[in-house]
Request: fold
Amino acid sequence: MTSLNTQLWELIKTHKMPDDAAGTPFIEQLMAENRISRDTANVAIAEYQKFMYLCATRPERNVPSKAVDLVWHLHMQHSRDYWDVFCKKLGKPVHHNPGGQGLQHLDDYKATVKAYSDLFGTPPKGIWKRKNRVGTFIVLIFLLVFICIGASSIVQSGGFLFGILWLSVPLFVFVITLNSLTSKSELTLIFECNDPFADEDAGDCGSGDGGGCGD
Reply:
């Protein structure tokens, strides 16, 4: 387990996040922009600080969760504070490098989460993605029962064409849900049009509506 550089971590976690030109505190900017509570915003900012510690200390590519990435986007809009103050505390310029797809991107995200866990423990629910496998199994069982009953009814009624069309949606959902249980897809996260601060949707970066990676 890598030890925490307490001096650097103290500089990061005590950094005063910048007010805007109207004097609005950073946390209230984040709350208004993402329609989240103060408690959620506080956790998101704390997670951003942990991610930036990883960026400052890991030579590898670091991939944030979507929620963390949104805090990062907002901080970078305050360019003077970000580049002239905050990055100097980090000891290096941490650039935002948008984009990234495929298994390598996913592997980088997994490595970031692993490095996070080694230093800070289990990531909090809602900011970093955490799978609910029990809930997924329940959904799979429900879908399987629904498909079997539907298939039996189709055979008895003889309406094969209509039945196939009717079962196509639950079959598709079943396959997608089953795939979500595999190791490779465990951290494959979709955030377009979803809530990045919710447990089901948080995580990843670099596709759709933005995202990026710290290096």
Summary: DSSP finds eight helices and two strands in the chain. The first helix runs from residue 6 to 13. Helices lie at 6-13, 26-34, 38-57, 66-77, 79-90, 102-120, 133-157, 160-179.
